[in-house]
């Protein structure tokens, strides 16, 4: 059975569906690429996110808002990364339940090594499909959409990714 490519009546729904399907296809190709030797794509995502954080560290709950992974899975992944010496975990002063996660030098090196290969894959898959102007427009539109979603989530009763857990 074929999937309809156009939903009647909603330009936003059609745009979302196109974006979502493109993301699924691209991510599937990137995940299957032969670059994930030292790190899985989820491990890379965590290390990449930490590498962009101030001081290469952040609270676990804040890290959880940046990656598409349920909190219990993220906690287990961070434990495994710590056991491999790629991150350090510590308590947050004044917060008995808070956990601070910080990228180690070894973690930063693993992220950079995998990241170089990942950028080449992205260039091959995404960069070859779009012009430089289209890439700029895509980045601008996705950045705007993300900022709007984040600002809207404050007012929304649904602020978790639990409905996405089956996709991870």
Automatic annotation (TrEMBL):
GO terms for molecular function: DNA-binding transcription factor activity. Residues 16-147 form the HTH marR-type domain. Coiled coil: none annotated. InterPro entries: HTH_MarR-typ, MarR/SlyA-like, WH-like_DNA-bd_sf, WH_DNA-bd_sf. GO terms for biological process: response to stress. This is MarR family transcriptional regulator.
């Amino acid at each position: 059975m074929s999937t309809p490519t156009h939903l009647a009546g909603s330009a936003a729904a059609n745009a979302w569906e196109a974006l979502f399907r493109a993301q699924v296809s691209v991510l599937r190709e990137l995940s299957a690429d032969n670059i994930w030797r030292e790190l899985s794509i989820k491990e890379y995502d965590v290390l990449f996110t930490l590498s962009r954080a101030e001081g290469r560290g952040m609270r676990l709950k804040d890290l959880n808002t940046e990656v598409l992974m349920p909190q219990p899975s993220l906690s287990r992944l961070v434990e495994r990364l710590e056991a491999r010496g790629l991150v350090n975990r510590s308590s947050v002063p004044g917060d008995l339940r808070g956990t601070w996660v910080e990228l180690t030098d070894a973690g930063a090196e693993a992220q950079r090594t995998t990241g170089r290969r990942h950028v080449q894959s992205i260039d091959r898959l995404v960069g070859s499909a779009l012009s430089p102007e289209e890439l700029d427009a895509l980045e601008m539109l996705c950045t705007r959409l993300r900022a709007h979603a984040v600002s809207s989530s404050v007012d929304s009763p649904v602020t978790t990714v639990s409905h996405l857990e089956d996709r991870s």
